[in-house]
Amino acid sequence: MAERGAEEARPGPENTYALIGHDAAQAVLARAWRRGRLAHGWLLTGGEGVGKATLAFRFARAILSGAMDGATAPAAALPGLADPAPPRDGMAGDGMAGDGMAGERLPDVAPDDAAARKIAAGAHPGLRVVRRSVNPQTGKMRGEIVVGDVRRAMEFLSRTAADGGWRIVIVDPVDEMNRSAANALLKSLEEPPGKCLFLLISHVSDTVLPTIRSRCQILALPPLPAADVRAAVGAVAPDLAPKADGALLDLAAGSPGRAIRLIEADAGALQAQIDAVLEAPEAGSGLAALDLAERVARSGATVAFRIVGELLARRNARLAHEAASPAARDAAAALWFEVADRFREAELLNLDRRHTVLKACRDTGRLVRASSGSGGG
Hints:
The chain has 377 residues and is an alpha/beta fold. The chain folds into 2 domains: 2-222, 3-Layer(aba) Sandwich (Rossmann fold); 265-372. It has 15 helices and 5 strands. The chain has a 5-stranded parallel beta sheet with strand order 2-3-4-1-5, sandwiched between helices. The longest helix is centred in the C-terminal third of the chain and has 23 residues, at 326-348. It is elongated. 43% of the residues are buried.
């Protein structure tokens, strides 16, 4: 259970006060507020762990603490943003050149601010956070956000704020809602109360219902440069910063959250073990694959299990890109998605994780050996 303790020791987005990078995204939100053209719904998209939830809480904190009051505040959230579109994927830096956005950022709010303390404790009356909940019948975390989780937040919106202030709902992430939960959210997005703001976080925006997407302003957060990832790791987990080397940052793919998970799970050692399994002759790879499966299938090794799945899927993606023939490319691409689906299903449905690892290693190893021309039977 050491893994779980390590996760709990790290600050979550509700009590992370430094946002490294994403100045262009901050500028879009700050300008929308300043000009009184704030959409009532925002869909924050980008890779998992890139900083979307941290940005959502930063914006909520700035509004609920009154730090935004120095700017021109909208009388109520509007159904759309009439200003020019937000930055495209990949745009980052100190803001958008021209158009009056350079240097605009959301204001900092100190951790000892009264509103910030309440938000960090999950007790602010103006904020509701919708996440997967514990099933009271099993005592375990649900695999999805259910309709009851959303309805409780909608009941909160139906009540007028005691101080006449803003009411904010953060859904983290919207991808995990089941169909009933998504439909319940859609009703409030279609007819939002006044002074209400939805901040929806999506790791895979293509899975979001088109009807929800159409009622939100989409704000894409691109992967961060390696230097920003290293700085963000240092801000959230200073004990891990020395381990954020070049190889690790490459695996992190621009995501500070992913970088932290990779370091904590000793991803470098996992990668070396996977390489040894995949590059060994098929007759001699079985025991090595079994050692790997036993390592990540044990209780408390969920993060390591996920990372092995990601690394195996990544290896198949590389095989697809480097394939010498269309047939080899198609086989690797199909296995790329199949491996990712297998690992997700194993976790969601509580399937045999050891079998999942062994099968993914066997199938990927065959493609690796075929691509190298070594055969392997």
